[in-house]
Design a protein that fits this description.
Blueprint: H1 7-11, H2 13-92
Length: about 90
């Protein structure tokens, strides 16, 4: 529309101004939409990261609990073995 070297612009300045205004308004609306979508994506990404962090912490806690239970079982077996040995020695004496 502007490629005619300004002829159209000089003949229809109001039409050109309205066209440019509507184009700029459309661009501003598109920019707002992109920004809003970017904000939503960022918010969703943060939520996902928080969920992943909680899941990771829960798995670590479960692994720690399992390890503690295994260590407790080993200690219980050692104590039971020593008490059994002590009991046998007590009967011999």
């Amino acid at each position: 529309m502007i490629t005619d070297g300004g002829t159209v612009a000089s003949l229809f300045p109001d039409l050109l101004a309205k066209y440019l205004q509507s184009t700029l308004a459309e661009k501003a609306a598109a920019d707002r939409q992109v920004s809003d979508q970017g904000d939503k994506l960022l918010k969703e990404q943060r939520k996902l990261e928080a969920i992943e962090d909680r899941h990771k912490q829960q798995r670590q806690s479960e692994m720690d609990d399992d390890e503690a239970a295994a260590q407790s079982e080993v200690l219980d077996q050692r104590i039971a073995g020593r008490l059994s040995a002590s009991s046998k020695l007590g009967k011999l004496g």
